[in-house]
Amino acid sequence: MRYMGRVFGTGFVFVLELFYTYSIYIGEETITLSQVVMSLFFLVIAWQFGKSYDNKTLQIKELQAAKSELDFILDNKNVAIWSWNEKENKTMSVSAGIEELYGYTRKEFSEDPSLWKKVLYPEDQHVIDSIRRNLLSGKTSYGEFRIVRKDGQIRWIQDFGTPLFNEEGKLWKTSGVAIDITEHRNAQEALEQRESQLHTLINAMPDFVCFKDGKGRWVTANPFGLSVFGLEGVDYEGKTDTELSEYVSFYKETLLYCQISDEETWRYGAITRCEETVPQPNGQTKVFDVIKVPLYYDNHERKGLLVLGRDITDRKKAEAHLEESKQRYKSLFEQHPDLVCAIDTKGRITQVNKAIEKVTGYTQEYFQKITPKALFPHHYAKKVMHYFNKAVMGQPSHYEIQMNHKEGHVIDLEVEHIPIVVNNSVEGVYAVVKDITAQKKNEEVIRRSEKLSVVGELAAGVAHEIRNPLTSIKGFIQMMQANQVGNDRYFQIMLSELDRINFIVSELLILSKPQVLSFKEKRITPIIEEVITLLDTQAIMNNIKITAKMDSGLPPVRCEENQIKQVFINVLKNAIEAMPSGGEISVHIKETSSNRILIRVIDQGEGIPENIIKKLGEPFYTTKENGTGLGLMVSYKIIEDHQGTIHITSKVNEGTTIDVHLPTAALTSSEN
Asked: Residue ranges of the PAS domain (predicted)?
């Protein structure tokens, strides 16, 4: 205890005084003033002796504590105490920790005063020079530098140096403490490096990054964040959004809104996320996905607000485009005039458009409850599943089939299976089903029309050849009848049979007479498209691709639709037959400067020699082995009836080009 000596000394004297006083009291003697003063004097003396004892005891304890601390420092391997004799310019003493720090022994430092300089890292010489200047000028000095240990390791040293002066006030020696701070510096450098990397990363980020203090004042922001509000070059630190809005009038309202939005996050008390729109000087806008992170002290006071914003303008545009594409797909799917349905890989119909009712008579709800093969006659079910399975394997398929309409009649269908591929895997099949019942009927009408046309041409020729001799025979029989008597019955029979032959010839001539045609204004493009659709299957079977390039907004022509179809059926058939090795047939439709529509058909066939081109269109002239020579003749006649022209050019082994010119409806009306 700090007052133990004083308490013990005064206590001992006080006890003695009590005994002395008591003995006087027992002897019935009187206590004098001098006796009281003497007692107090002895008490003071005892107090002083006790105080001296206490001070010495305290000094001993402090010395022991200092010695313990000194021993700890001297024995600490990470700390070295040194002293340098400035007068003799040599090491006076160094603690044992020097060996751990420098790798050299104390003896080596004592014997070689230059060793201190030798172990110094060359680039840190300026630090030692600064320390020495301060010490020599009588100032306490501090510095951090690197040394190279004896084993080659590099260590960071923190050194505290103090100048010591003699009684004359002259610098006698310098002493100091060297501490190994390598781990601290490494950790600090690693932290600085991470902070630098983080700083670099934040600055390089294409995202808005801003940190505000608890009062909404900007602390730091990356370059992109500054560019968002046009704050490049503005001293933003310590300013609120309201204050910064005065620097950029264009973004003033946006910054003021940001401050309101920040306050909403503080009130919410947790991370918030929202989309904020920032107007641009060019009239456009940018959309940011903004995350705000509020930070609090332990006492729940506001510490800071981290604001992160990512420019999602392109993503929003992509989403809008995707949504638009979905709507377009949905519109294409639902509004497609043909029956379109989606089928999963197990053959179940998952989606079907409303054209199902127009094509089959069945409702969408009914159609989705059945499998495709249930709609077709039994003998077609195997065919349907065969092509469906091909599509499931990734092979598109195209075929024709018949099915019973809900009302009972049979309809002809053209079916195309298209695999639904998602991430390189077939997830289902689209079936596009077109009702070609009317097309089949049109094909039959065209075939009959072509046959009738051929028969008519033949009938005209035959009738002409028969009627002339019939007229001669009938005249001679009548002359013989006038000169002979008795054979009237035979003459009547012969004349009757001749009249019968003449009647048959007249019936044949009816086939060759021009039909009463009904010309109407029609768009040529749909007519040609129907012909291409009609012959596309035949072309595909012959490894031929028919491509069409048709100008939009073409004026109508006055025509008989079926006859025009017949012409181009003949033309395209001839082109297909002229390409046994396959290839491409191109169809171009455009308006010429002379108010005419040009339909040009180009094939890649074998070509026609020039001397033969002149004969094309003549009756019964053909270059085909099984041809009749009537197709082009009929085509020429039809185009001629439509006030049009046909022009054929060809190069052997390169192909043939057929140009058909038809007048527009306006031109036809003006000419008429």
From this structure: 66-139, 325-365
Are 11 and 111 members of one domain? no
550 and 661, same domain (yes or no): yes
How high is the pLDDT of residue 567? 86
583-591 and 544-550 strand pairing: parallel
| 385 and 463 housed in the same domain | no
- Structural contact between residues 54 and 6, judged by C-beta atoms closer than 8 angstroms: yes
> Can you point out the beta strands (E) in 136-229?
141-148, 154-165, 171-180, 207-213, 218-221
Domain count, the chain: 6
47 confidence band (pLDDT: 50, 70, 90): low
Is residue 163 one of the residues assigned to a domain?
yes
With contact defined as beta carbons under 8 Å apart, do 618 and 579 qualify?
Answer: no
Domain boundary among 317, 352, 382: 317
Residues 665 and 530 in one domain: yes
Same domain, 638 and 596: yes
Upper half-sphere CA count for residue 395 (Cβ side, 13 Å): 8
DSSP secondary structure string for all residues of 207-253: EEEEEEETTS-EEEE-HHHHHHTT-TT---TT--HHHHTTT-STTHH
Quote the domain boundaries for residue 252.
Answer: 205-317
Average pLDDT, the chain: 81
The answer to pTM > 0.85 is no
Residue 188 to residue 436: CA distance in whole angstroms: 82
The H-or-E segment that residue 335 falls in is: helix 313-335
Token readout for 88 is 């003799």
Do 536 and 664 belong together in one domain?
yes
What does the pLDDT look like over 106-130, one tens digit per residue? 889 888 988 988 999 999 999 989 9
192 occurs within a structural domain: no
Return all residues near 492 (Cβ < 8 A) that are at least 6 apart.
Answer: none
* 193 falls within a domain: no
Q: Which two tokens stand for residue 190?
A: 């690693």
Q: Kindly tell me the burial class for residue 578, based on how many C-beta atoms sit within 10 Å of its own C-beta (0-12, 13-18, 19 or more).
A: buried
Residue 649 CA to residue 659 CA, distance in Å, equals 8
Q: What is the CATH number of the domain that holds 143?
A: 3.30.450.20
Q: Does 322 reside within a domain?
A: no
For residues 120 and 102, what is the distance between their CA atoms, to the nearest angstrom? Answer: 10
CA angle at residue 161 from 146 to 180, to 5 degrees? Answer: 35
CATH number where 634 lies: 3.30.565.10
Q: Are 149 and 105 in contact (CB under 8 A)?
A: no
Q: How many other C-beta atoms can be found within 10 angstroms of the C-beta atom of residue 572?
A: 25
pLDDT tens-digit profile of 287-313?
A: 999 999 999 999 999 999 999 999 999
What's the confidence (pLDDT) of residue 359? 86
Distances (CA, A) of 180 to 41, 108, 154, 236: 59, 19, 11, 41
Q: Are residues 529 and 660 in the same domain?
A: yes
